[in-house]
Each structure stands twice: as C-alpha cells, then as structure tokens.
Amino acid sequence: MPPTLSDALGVDGDSVFVAVGAGGKKTLIYALADELSDAVVTATVKMPKFGGHVERTVLTDDPVSAAREATERPLGLARDGDRSDRYLGYDPEVVDDLAASGATPLLVKGDGARTRLLKAPKEGEPPIPNAATVVAPLASVRVVGQPLTEEAVHRPKRVAELTDVAAGNEIRPKHVADVLAHPDGGLKNVPDGADAVPVVNMADTEETVETAREIAAGVLERARSVPRVLVTRLIHDDPVVDVLERD
Hints:
Elements: H1 5-9, E1 16-21, H2 25-35, E2 40-43, E3 47-48, E4 56-59, H3 63-69, E5 75-83, E6 86-88, H4 92-100, E7 106-109, E8 118-119, E9 134-140, E10 153-154, H5 156-162, H6 173-181, E11 195-196, E12 199-201, H7 206-222, E13 228-232, E14 240-245
Helix pairs in contact: 6-7
C-alpha cells in the first residue's frame, strides 16, 4: 500500500509546509488539506481563489486573529486580490506569526510559475517563511523532451544558467534534477532545520514514472541535504507513485 502524501512528505499536525517550483503546487496543497482536516491554507504569493478546497475563506490583514476565531477547517486565509480571480498572500514574516500562534498544520503556496512545468527562481524568490518545517520544490516530468522555452518553463534564462541546456534545446532528466537540487534552484531559501523534499509530479504512465525516478535519483546524487524525493501523480486517488530515499 503506498504511503499517504502527508506521511511521504513528513507533514503532520505541527508542520509548516511550503510548496515551491512548478507543476502542481496548488494540487499538492489541496491534497494535503484533504488529508489533514485541521489545515490552514495560505500563501506568500498571489494565488487563485480557494474555491471548494476549503471549508471557509477569510480575507483579512490579520490572519492570526482570523485563525483564532474561525472554527471551520480546512481554513483558507488570504488578502483581497487586485483581480476577481485571485487573492494576495502575506509577507513571510506574517506567516511566521501565524505559525507561532499555533495555526498548524499550515500549508503555504510559496511560489508562482504561471502554470509552467519547470521553474528556477529569480532574485528575491521564493518567499519562504522561516517557520517552514518542510519545503517541497516541484517539477513536472512532462517537461522532459520539450525545448527550453517560455511555453514550458517559467524563467527559462535562469534554468539555462543553472544547467548545461541552452535556450531552445531539449530538456533532459538531468536538467530537471540540476534545477531541483541546485542551491539557487529548488533548494533556494530553504530555512535551516527544514526538510527539503522535492516532488516530481505528473508521472501517470510507465514511461513517465521511469523518467521521474531518473530525475529523483539525480537529485539525491546532487544534493546531500535532501533525504528523499517523491514521484507523484497528484490528480489521482493514489497520488504517491514512489519515494526514493537516500541509502
């Protein structure tokens, strides 16, 4: 029997979980919210509206008080957005205060990728709160075989700088592993003491599962600080395909 997402990621009732990167952050957060019924969902970046993924949404500049007063869970906390289809997140320091108040498990969207399949952060990204206990850098296995362009990759220039793939050339598994394992890529701004658990998502065929395992093995080879890497198909009922752990 495959593990649950929360068990595979090491997320429990006291955790502050942050999803970064590209290829399924919101899906991962909402899947965790389904498993962890007491969860509070928020963001340090702009995010689409919560919809039916939470029991109640509170738009507030004082999330600590809102979390204390609202009894419904999962609870979505954000600020009113500048567009009708999205909310604004909080500064990382505000999320730290929220965590310190005991509003856990806290599930945080900590990056934006404009629905692309792979991303490398620019200067100042990602805004991860210091209270984070688990950070999950995501990438989609479906980016393998595609050219390094803006159609598939958010900030392709940054990806080129972190790997040996040139703009327009084909992305291979090693390039995805390079990005996920790089201290200026998937591991950027992970706080001391937090576990970095990369997730290779969208592995929903035998071929993509094997490619995702190749990426995961590459991450473990490159980043000694990473304890394990998940291979997932997050839109399925059994989202955890494999967990590759360090020997």
